[in-house]
Amino acid sequence: MDGLFAKVATGATVITPTSRLASYLVARFNAHMLNTGQEVWRSPEIFQLSVWLHSLWQSRGEDWPELTQTVYLGDQRERLLWEKVIGEELRSRDSGIELLWDLSATARMAQKSWGLLNDWDLTLQDFPDYLNQDSAAFSSWATHYDTVLHQKNWIDQAGLSLAVIRNMARFPEVVVFAGFELINPRQKMLTEVMEELGVDLQIWMPETGGDRSLRQIRCRDSTDEIRRAAAWACERLQLSPLDPVGIVVPDLAKNRSVVEAAMEDTFSPGAIAPGAGEYCPPYELSLGVPLIEVPLVETAIDLLSLSREGEFDLISRLLRSPYLHQNDSHRESSLDCELTLRRQRLHLFSLTQLRETALSVGAHGWVSGVETLEQMLQGMGQELPAPDWVEHWVEVLNLFGWPGPRTLLDSEYQAVEKFRQLLGAFASTGDIGGVESRNHCLNRLKRAARDLVFHQQTPSAPIQVVGLLESSGMIFSHLWVVGLESEAWPFAPHPDPFLPLSLQSQHQMPGIDSSSSLELATRMTERISASAEEVVFSWPGQRGETPLMPSPLIAELEQAELTPPPSLAWCDSQRESSPKVKIRKQDPGKPFTGRSAPGGTALFRELAQCPFYAYARRRLGLEEFVDPGFGLDSRDRGILVHSVLEKVWTTVEGSEALQSLSQEQRDRLLGGAVSAALDELEQQRPGVLGERFRELERDRLELLIGRWLELELARPAFEVDSIESDASASLRLGAGTAVFDIRLRPDRVDRLASGGRMVIDYKTGYRAGRGKWFGVPPEEPQLPLYQHLLGDVDAIAFGLIRADGVRLEGVGRRDGIAEGVVKAGTIRNNQKQAKDWVSQVRQWERALFKLAAGFLLGGAEAEPRTPQECEGCQARALCRIDE
After folding, report:
1. Which range of residues forms the domain containing residue 645?
2. 484 neighbors 554 (Cβ within 8 angstroms)
3. I need a labelling partner for 84 at 20 to 30 A (CA). Which of 162, 340, 364, 757 fits?
4. For residue 409, what pLDDT is reported?
5. Residue 271: per-residue pLDDT
6. How far apart are CA 422 and CA 823, in angstroms?
7. pLDDT at residue 496 in the model
8. Which residues of the chain, if any, have pLDDT below 50?
């Protein structure tokens, strides 16, 4: 590489196939100049080929008289032109067919195919006479696209190289093509023209001198492979901090999250700890992330998406974002506003609802911002050109103080600049896009932000993690290449979907068949083998249950033994310097000294689920987040069933009154109760039911509860004693003292003909059953608790009202109370079986007293009944049971 840098130092221009290699060579050249004692030097002329061609175009002046009025499109406008052309072609065939196509994805593929066709110096006239449907469609689109280019006097990226070839009269004296794995025909034409003009043209590929160590390693699986590569790189860095180390991941885009996790765990385990600040790791991933996935840009896109009506998820993200001025200055009120909206459980909110809610909780920054936004939207037209929409978006971002008042981190500052550049490029598409609706234009912006890769510019790191193609032209002291199993390397053929296969085969385009894939993979393997003094090729031994084999291109190499990842002083020192967290597994809380049980009977269900959860919920004030969704959820449907039955039994009050009604009268009673319940729901949650949805829900309720009333008609005589009635009772331990008052609200209490009572709890879910009462403690202790507190109870039962059937499922003092209510002492369960109702009641009392005593003493043990209790538990971050 010293020879290449000597040429650069004397003014040679270096051209690379990728921007990554250009940045790498610039960093290595600057380091080389420092190491040789230089203090001042010219900026190196090292460019990616497309960037270099564009710079020649911009500096053409009057040298290209035929192209003085020609306008270069740029990627944004070029992509939009393809979308327009394809959309017009589709509409000309069928007025509605474009709605079934993903125009953006199709345009992206067509743009790539057009570039490939031009790279091989081919035209549409080179297509064979017979074309399949895809190639015929592309030929039609491309003809239309090329016509528009000539009519508008535009030039695209594919035509830029040809314009340079035909018009450029002067090139730099020395040009080096560095790191090109393959020179395509258009590039070959360019090199021939430069040589004809007297340019000293050179081709450079890296190669290390001296002996090289090549070996292969079989790892357990792909995750183990990445982790071992990270530990190996860490070891090489510790042993020789100045030696460049590389890790090559063939499909880095697909495996980015796994690679990032392995590298962070190895090099910066404390980087995610609170207060850790921005960390500059000793490694760099060559692959960036889509700009839209950068949190700061995501907030900007969300803000621009806020319209007269917005989804709750979008509004929730905005209220919690740290990148808006309103949230920074009124953090607590913004969070209060989010919680208040969440409790309403609506999927959509209008700006008026958001403003009123913000006003009610004192989020005044949001009140003024939303009010101004409403006024701005009222004054906007329905359709505008892209520059006008961009101007409006900038006003909205400024209105809400994006990206916030605090000093940005370096990575955040770069993301802001990248997004502003995107808006500038997007505004330039107005002459192609014409007037557009707000949603259409915003969707284009989102796609552009998704396609644009953001790569944070950082100081050159000693460890480079790169993709297979990006590694071309790079030199390392130590290199590890992962993923070289036989099914992945050589890679499978991947011909272009739009170009005719016969044309691709005739001109030997890359990836057209297995032989070309093997040829290219062999050449790349040889190149990688020559790019470092030590090269490790690894492959996963299995994928799931499927055993794998090494690629035939590395199968003959020496196989190294698989050893445990080394324990490294450098890594250990990083972990030692990370913030420490001391965790107490059994940390008791403060004893409960109140009079009333917080949460009523629900407290006992939570105690049975997990003591810590109950403590967090009832003592620490943990409020569970409810995620609003479309329509009704299971909770809503359960509430509707309860509401309808409450209205029915408030009217008939017992079995005799129910039996006295005719079928027509029962149907009328039920229909009125269902309508009233649905009306109440719509008053509480406006818009949750549409007209058709309400009809469906009414039919469902009438059918389901009609079946339940048929079951009630067959029961022995009873009177309804209470329905959803609030009451309070004192829980007493053993002989005596009142412990605390518990609020009660049983769904229903029936007075039986025998004089005793039966407590019924309606259940519409599929998890309820009498088996929930016989664990230690009972999984569903609510009905046993009602039995203890109410007294004079001869039976408890779940009223199961579900689509698969309706029934009572309970246990009582004797047989014959109701169908589905069995006599105590006859039920087999995993606990000690009670002999009769009295002994069963005592078992429940002991379990309930134990739960109450633990709560009173401040019990907060993270001891869930089963591991399944932890799934979806919102106190999990507090108890840290996983640690």
Report:
1. 634-714
2. yes
3. 162
4. 86
5. 60
6. 74
7. 92
8. 566-570, 583
Token pair recorded at residue 42: 């010219």
Domain endpoint, select from 714, 742, 769: 714
Of residues 852, 865, 844, 872, the one with CA closest to residue 610: 865
Residues 603 and 778: their CA atoms lie apart, in Å, by 13
- pLDDT for 573: 55
| Structure token digits, residue 200 | 């000293």
Q: Count other C-beta atoms under 10 Å from residue 722's C-beta.
A: 19
Number of domains in the chain: 6
**Is there a single domain that holds both residue 183 and residue 41?**
yes
Residue 589 lies in a domain: no
pLDDT digits (tens, 9 = 90+) for 775-828: 888 889 999 999 988 888 999 999 999 988 999 999 999 998 999 999 998 877
Are 447 and 419 in a shared domain?
A: yes
| pLDDT at residue 99 in the model | 60
CA distance 439 to 706: 46
pLDDT tens figures, 833-883: 788 999 999 999 889 988 988 888 888 888 888 888 888 888 888 887 776
Question: Are the C-beta atoms of residues 415 and 296 closer than 8 Å to each other?
Answer: yes
197 lies in the same domain as 253: no
Identify whether residues 667 and 744 lie together within a single domain.
no
Name every residue whose Cβ is closer than 8 Å to that of residue 501 and which is 6 or more positions away in sequence. 495, 512
CB 47 within 8 A of CB 13: yes
Identify the pLDDT of residue 345: 81
Nearest one of 102, 8, 13 to 53, comparing CA atoms: 13
Looking at residue 327, its pLDDT comes to: 61
Record the pTM.
Answer: 0.80
Alpha carbon distance 557, 57 (integer Å): 48
Q: Are residues 468 and 568 in the same domain?
A: yes
| Domain shared by 519 and 403, yes or no | no
Alpha-carbon span 303 to 671, nearest angstrom: 45
Supply the DSSP symbol for 459.
P
579 in any annotated domain: no
Q: Is residue 280 part of a domain?
A: yes
Q: Are 303 and 324 in contact (CB under 8 A)?
A: yes
